[in-house]
Specification:
The structure is a homodimer of 379-residue chains. Chain A has 379 residues and is α/β, with parallel strands linked by helices. Chain A has 15 helices and seven strands. Chain A is 63% helix and 9% strand. In chain A, strands 2-1-3-4-5-6-7 form a seven-stranded mixed β-sheet, sandwiched between helices.
């Protein structure tokens, strides 16, 4: 390269480095300001995630960006990423305690991952938390004495037995579970306990640093008014509550969660039996291709028991899995007969049925794929 | 809320707004500087994606961030997103022409989406581009006269016929195709043309604004030395080239692409037949749950013919699809017998086989899910 150009390039890169350092300074300042906002929110008991203010702020920044010739999507994406950090940092400040007079919160299964997360959140909010784990049952009566809330957070296949095993709870105590199925545990809790009962399903893994924007499904059991404070507490942690009948929830979990896990399991078994060379497969990596592999492979980094539980815990899953096989066999027949026209006709039929959702799904996943491509690097 | 706190909150938010405006100013300055870098790269024919410089720069920023108490992953994520914009803006500047003396580039199927993208890239690099689309065959001889490169970019099931249909090409002309299968088109090109032949598979959709970091698979045909300039040109567009035998490429595409599309198709058929309420299903949205749905639904926003082609174009796919069904039936049997222990044992077996890849897939997809959660908003 010509020397003049090379010098010019170095000079420009130095200037870009300076801009990036200014960027770091701005970030530091912003995190500090957000920390101060967090302290006030904590005092006032305001939720850490304020969707309306956020939407208004992003809209304003987009407009300003457009005027300055900066792509509006760029500033929006950057601010959203920065806000993720802000939510996480609010965990350090703690949360307002909505119901300081309630008795101790007992987490049954509090040594598990999800139980630990909820213990932390309750403690950060100033509640007394007690753990009742596997080995603590001999002291159960003492641990549960005067309990204000009992949270059941044990593997699905133990949930009903654990609920049945509980001693009689104080009448005003709130009994709730965090299982990823809802009908059976809710029924078990209602028959066990005469007081307020509610089923919750936190729709996220236990490795989160913040509940901001995460969904918690709420299936009401009994005496809703007496656990409203608890729902409000969860909102303050940043979560969005979605109320639904337990049966509707369970059906949705079967259709998407259980069956997607089941077919991903089969795909893993398939790759193994076909002696796929994973290293080689990854060489052909495009973001979507990698993601398809990752959605299968990620399953097997997790707990066999957990997925066995999700798949085997509901009798209806078997019927769904049989129906899926019928569809598979129909599709295979088209492949055997080279019936491409039939395939295309059914494809278009399904596309009609998906309607606008197909476009929405494409655009949602498209954004993710762009961001996956951003994160790619290799020398 | 106490009035003092409310005022204090407003004051802090004003200051955050000021920081964000400064951020916009920095972004504008950075885009300008990157634009100047692009001009010099264009003059000098340097690739727009410089992985080593990028990695070194990110490492330095991470260190500086740590010293300032800014999370290093935050600055890395932000800079990666900003760089995406920089790549795209380099399209406006154009690219250096590596082989200005070559004859015209003829894109067979140049009116299609992928053909259009490659036409643009060649034109931005200063080449004469001619289009030979469906209706242009009567003038094929004139269009192909003196061609330096012929790019075949037509639907898979037409590729071989279109190659056969080509008139005899100038001996020094490079013949290449962009089909997503490689063995059959490569064989067809080698038997059609005596000169340099290469098969390419751009591993991305045609809707991209930049080739930066995207993978193009290269399957060598004949006279590699005589199309090296062309591979260099593609590198300048920002792509990463991955060389592989055509058979290896095709096998990978079957195992991942064709079979994932096929099973997603079956899943779409299944959801439809089970009368799933998509609107309701989306209410239970966690990032992973949404992504599972999106990976199925996105298929149906696309072209039935394209997916029919990918699935039906290779005879081996049928055998693979049958094997998959065998695995499905084995898994179903475990479900029928409530054999959770068997399921867990096989799960752990597959997990062992995935080895470290499972963790890698989990962490890759985990980052994507975090970014999906950033993009979520609702009032």
């Amino acid at each position: 390269m010509a020397e003049r150009s090379s010098q010019e390039l170095d000079r420009l890169r130095d200037r870009i480095d300076e801009v990036d350092k200014d960027l770091l300074t701005l970030l530091r300042r912003r995190l500090d300001l957000v920390g101060e906002v967090g302290s006030i929110k904590h005092e006032q008991g305001l939720p850490i995630y304020a969707p309306k203010r956020e939407a208004a702020m992003l809209m304003k920044r987009r407009e300003e960006a457009t005027l300055m010739g900066v792509p509006p999507q760029l500033i929006e994406d950057l601010l959203r990423r920065i806000m993720r950090e802000s939510y996480a940092s609010e965990n350090d400040v703690g949360f307002k305690c909505i119901n300081p007079d309630v008795g101790p919160i007992v987490i049954v299964g509090g040594a598990g991952k999800l139980g630990t997360l909820f213990s932390q959140l309750f403690r950060l909010s100033g509640y007394e938390v007690r753990i009742l784990d596997k080995d603590d049952w001999p002291n159960a009566d003492a641990i549960l004495d005067g309990a204000g809330v009992v949270v059941v957070s044990v593997p699905i296949h133990h949930t009903n037995a654990v609920i049945a095993q509980l001693p009689t709870l104080p009448k005003e105590c709130v009994l709730l579970d965090l299982t990823s199925i809802k009908q059976a545990p809710l029924a078990a809790m209602l028959s066990k306990h005469q007081g307020p009962v509610v089923g919750l399903h936190p729709m996220f893994g236990p490795d989160l640093s913040s509940l901001a924007k995460q969904v918690v499904v709420v299936c009401h059991g009994r005496d809703e008014a007496r656990y409203q404070w608890l729902l409000e507490q969860i909102r303050i942690w940043g979560a969005r509550l979605h109320e639904a009948p337990a049966s509707e929830h369970d059906q949705a979990m079967q259709l998407v969660q259980a069956m997607r896990h089941f077919t991903a399991f089969v795909y893993g078994a398939h790759l193994r039996r076909e002696r796929a060379d994973l290293d080689q497969l990854l060489q052909f990596s495009s973001p979507i291709y990698r993601l398809e592999l990752a959605m299968v492979g990620r399953l097997f980094a997790q707990d066999a028991k957990l997925y066995g539980d999700i798949i085997f815990s509901q009798p209806d899953t078997l019927a769904r899995a049989r129906h899926y096989m019928d569809r598979y066999q129909e599709a295979l027949k088209m492949l055997e007969h080279g019936d491409k026209a039939g395939f295309e006709a059914q494809f278009n039929d399904i596309a009609d049925w998906f309607g606008d959702f197909a476009k929405q799904f494409q655009s949602e996943s498209g954004n993710m794929l762009l961001s996956a491509n951003d994160n790619r690097s290799e020398a």
